[in-house]
Amino acid sequence: MLNGIKAFLATSVSIGFCYLTGILTSFTDFTFAWVLNFVLMAWYTYLDSVFKWKYDSVYFNTLQFEKKGRIYRFFGVHLYRKLLVWTGWEKISRKDLKIIKKGRSFKAC
């Protein structure tokens, strides 16, 4: 019950913050998109730490085409990861998710 209340409050605050940003800037502005992206990431990280979901489904297994990481380079996932490190997001999420340092997490796949 307490987790449900926490989730409801986190969702309400996230929606309110994004709505306020959209009103103050514009819903079509880059600033709104940037804020929305990081608010959604923070919201999900928080919910993940509250509910502690287990990711043991077959869906999360590495597929054959993912093994060497070429597709990640093509779509810019490594650049996006560097952006998250630069903005400090990795430090925030690492506390709860225990991300393996640097590229070792990609090599493990």
Order of helices and strands: HHHHHH
Q: Strand tally, please?
A: 0
Q: Rg, please?
A: 17 Å
Unreliable segments of 5+ consecutive residues: none
Most strands sheet: none
Task: Give the DSSP E fraction (strand runs of 2 or more residues).
Answer: under 5%
- SS class: mainly alpha
Amino- and carboxy-terminal Cα gap:
37 Å
- Helical content (DSSP H or I, runs of 4+): 55-70%
Helix segment tally = 6
How much is the average pLDDT? 81
Bulk shape: globular
What this model shows, in words?
The chain is mainly α. The protein is 70% helix and 0% strand. The protein has helices at 2-24, 30-51, 70-75, 77-87, 89-97, 104-108. Helix 1 (2-24) packs antiparallel against helix 2. The radius of gyration is 17 Å and the shape is globular. The relative contact order is 0.10. The mean pLDDT is 81.
Q: What's the layout of helices and strands?
A:
Layout: H1 2-24, H2 30-51, H3 70-75, H4 77-87, H5 89-97, H6 104-108
Helix pairs in contact: 1-2
Throw out a few tags for this protein.
109 residues, mainly alpha
Provide a concise account of the structure shown.
The chain has 109 residues and is mainly α.
